[in-house]
Amino acid sequence: SLSTFEMYNHFDIMFVANAFNVNLKSPFLRKKAFLQMVDLVADEEQQQQTVSQLRSLKFIQLTNKTEPALLADYLMELGASSVSITDHDLDTENEQPIFGEPDKVDSFAAIVCGDAAVGKNLWLRCDVNAHFDYSYDVLSIVDNIRSTFNLETTPRFEINNVPDLDWVKEVQSSWKPVLIGGFILRFPWHTDEDVQETLQKNAEVNGDKKEDFNSYNELLLEGGIAFGTGEHPTTQLCLEYITNVVKSDKDEKIKMFLDYGAGSGVLGMAACKLDNSLEATGVEIDPDAIRIANENAERNNVNMKSYLPTDLGDNVESAALLMKAFQRSTADYLPEHLGQPSYFDACAANILAGPLISLTSTIARMLRPGAPIGLSGILEWQTDEVIEAYSEYFDDVKLEKERKGWVLITGTRKLNID
Q1: DSSP string of 260-277?
Q2: Contacts for 152-159 with beta carbons within 8 Å, 24 or more apart?
Q3: How many other C-beta atoms are found inside a 10 Å radius of the C-beta of residue 338?
Q4: How far apart are CA 119 and CA 121, in angstroms?
Q5: How far is it, in rounded angstroms, from Cα 149 to Cα 163?
């Protein structure tokens, strides 16, 4: 809808008069028709505002020549509530996924200078979507963009109302319980009916009539900003690995379990659920994730606690993050006794290939001879590099499983530790 000012610039008296079928010869009727149009537009605008307090301004199919990242920053400066850049070719044959890690040369520059330091970090064609309060004149913002960026023509754009919804509830309603490797991962808002519905759908997919709730271990998670909610392939691969390792531990050698890169704590808690005599330790560089992981452990009544690391290997980026964490965190550092050599009996580390490689000797040192390890957060093309790094300290290092471009690598701590 148009503001009164916009309407005055878009409608002349002739249009208004024709719309109300009045006689143009009468100045009184012309004025009356115009005021009626003002009231009509104002009413429509008010009705729209009751539905939405935000409008979406989306610039479509921008190339790097238009500088999407700079445009996003400028929209924020103009007062946008939020701005996102997305791949215009997502889910098409032209899609070119961009994910990876900065190489060792550029890793420090990435910390200091941000994404721009590591080169190409945007797609060939981008959509830039900004949300503005309803009081903003979004058409004038479009004109502002054209003139400020010195564009010959106005970029393609669209304006839509953003529904005034309870977005927390909307996200929760779409976030169903997850079944993985003998576990049910549920969140505080999930009801027993939600769990039963998920079990029933899973049974139908597998050709069974009914799933037995008691055959699953339940984990209650408050994911928040911590990684590890069960939906990502790497979390799934690690949960399946932990299930196999703990269940096959007939001699009960696994008493101390290491969850390196703990996130929400889901992997360590899973190990504890499979064997309630087991104790898990999480190591994590994000203090907020540590808080969430410890709350999750308490909520699930398992013997697990997460800490900040004392040894970061050769990873510069992790060191920078840890320095920031130190300035604002009350999280505890890994106690000295937990950092002793050969302390842990098994490990799952779900991070990224770069940090995993830099932490090879750190993680290896923490595991006893013969301890099994499962590594993920690794893209398929990074497999050989990770296997090469861990083969120095582990036997039978191999690609165990692949899922949606991500892999699980497993191995066993060498017996002859130097």
Answers
A1: ET-TTSHHHHHHHHH-TT
A2: 155/59, 155/60, 155/62, 155/66, 156/59, 156/60, 156/61, 157/57, 157/58, 157/59, 157/60, 158/56, 158/57, 158/58, 158/60, 159/55, 159/56, 159/57, 159/58
A3: 17
A4: 6
A5: 30
Tokens for 62?
């921008």
Residues 126, 131, 137, 138: what is their CA dihedral angle, to the nearest 10 degrees? 20
Map residue 309 onto helix, strand or coil. coil
- Residues linked to residue 259 through DSSP beta bridges, in sequence order: 282, 348
Q: How far is the C-alpha of 327 from the C-alpha of 329, rounded, in Å? A: 6
Q: From the centroid of its chain, how far is CA 265?
A: 16
SS3 state of residue 330:
coil
pTM score above 0.90: no
**Each residue's pLDDT tens digit in the chain (418 positions)?**
334 333 433 444 334 444 444 444 566 655 565 566 556 555 555 555 445 588 999 999 998 888 899 999 999 999 999 999 999 998 888 887 775 554 443 444 333 334 443 344 678 899 999 999 988 999 999 999 999 999 988 999 999 998 888 777 777 777 788 888 789 999 888 888 888 888 888 888 777 666 666 778 999 987 565 566 677 899 999 999 999 999 998 788 899 999 999 999 999 999 999 999 999 999 998 888 899 999 999 999 999 999 999 876 655 555 555 556 555 557 889 999 999 999 999 999 999 999 999 999 999 999 999 999 999 999 999 999 999 999 999 999 999 999 999 999 999 999 876 5
